[in-house]
Design a protein that fits this description.
- The protein is an alpha+beta fold.
- It has 2 domains: 156 residues, Ribosomal Protein S5, domain 2 (2-Layer Sandwich), CATH 3.30.230; 118 residues, GHMP kinase, C-terminal domain (Alpha-Beta Plaits, 2-Layer Sandwich).
- Helix content is 31%, strand content 30%.
- The chain has 10 helices and 12 strands.
- Strands 1, 2, 3, 4, 5, 6, 8 and 12 form an 8-stranded mixed sheet that branches. A 4-stranded antiparallel sheet has the order 9-10-7-11.
- The longest helix is centred in the middle third of the chain and has 16 residues.
- The protein starts with 5 loop residues before the first strand and ends with a strand.
- The model has no long low-confidence stretch (mean pLDDT 96).
Length: 294
């Protein structure tokens, strides 16, 4: 690998809770969610260029290396109005499954915002970067903040919560994407459906009540997603039946399903047990950070 100036870890996220509570005039949905960063991460490598161009390199076949890429747009957002600065070369090593409900694109954008800020010594605070990040995507501010947080608005109004640093999870993905737009379109806000309480789950996190956290997992997007995609429903059923699985939920708009595990050993055993059953299966710890620069 060529020499780069900076390496940044871009951590994936899961949603321990996700409820759609309304729709705004601009088409965005109002949500209540609890985000949590996880250990699974992409690696972003940054290097100053000798010209003003922004370039993106990634070998993943479903990741564009042009202005459609959120990482490209993140660099452009910071550098466009600074003609005295050079451009930047971005290389993305993908480990987070694409379009999987794990915030991979948002994580990469968050990492580039933080990395370019450090590389060019721009002096922006975390709060500054989070305010810029929402222009790129609703999950980007949390990916910059990292750890655990209650999210409201479109997910950008964040209240930090204590992270579950000692907890391990199992991730399972069927190998196909679910359209986020399609899933949200299936939500009928006029229907009253039984749901769990985000306030209770937030309190359980603050008190470190692992078993109660597992009992109060909730995702309002699961019903339409699992109805249309039996493969995702089968993953959830298999993980629910696994003895050391404490709570199972689809993350975000899917198609990844996660299981809270009793401990690290059990998480790795589960990963070995299911490695031939799912296209993607990995044990990973929860993380207290969203972005790590080295």
């Amino acid at each position: 690998m060529a020499t780069f100036d900076l390496r940044v870890q871009a951590h994936a996220k899961i949603n321990l809770y996700l409820d759609i509570i309304g729709k705004r005039p601009d088409g965005y949905h109002e949500i209540e969610t609890i985000f949590h960063s996880i250990g699974l991460h992409d690696e972003i490598y940054l290097r100053k260029r000798t010209d003003r161009q922004i370039t993106v390199h990634c070998e993943h076949p479903h990741v564009p290396c042009d202005p459609r890429n959120l990482a490209y747009r993140a660099a452009k957002l910071l550098l466009d109005d600074k003609p005295d600065l050079s451009g930047v070369e971005i290389m993305i090593l993908k480990r987070i499954p694409v379009a999987a409900g794990l915030g991979g694109g948002s994580a990469d954008a968050a990492a580039v915002l933080c990395g370019v800020n450090a590389l060019f010594d721009l002096g922006l605070t975390q709060r500054d970067l989070m305010q810029l990040g929402v222009q790129l995507g609703a999950d980007v501010p949390f990916c910059i903040l990292g750890g655990a947080a209650l999210g409201r608005g479109i997910g950008e109004i964040l209240t930090p919560l204590p992270p579950m640093e000692e907890t391990w999870i199992l991730l399972a993905n069927p190998g196909f994407a679910i359209s986020t737009a399609w899933v949200y379109q299936q939500i009928n806000l006029s229907l009253t459906v039984p749901k769990k309480n985000v306030t209770i789950l937030a309190r359980c996190l603050r008190n470190g009540e692992f078993i109660n956290i597992a009992r109060h997992l909730y995702n309002g997007l699961e019903v339409p997603a699992l109805s249309k995609y039996p493969a995702v429903a089968k993953i959830k059923a298999k993980l629910n039946k696994y003895p050391s699985s404490c709570g199972v939920l689809m993350s975000g708009s899917g198609a990844t399903v996660f299981a809270l595990m009793q401990n690290q050993v059990q998480a790795h055993r589960a990963a070995l047990n299911f490695e031939n059953d799912f296209v993607f299966c990995s044990a990973t710890p929860m993380s207290s950070v969203g972005v790590r620069i080295s």
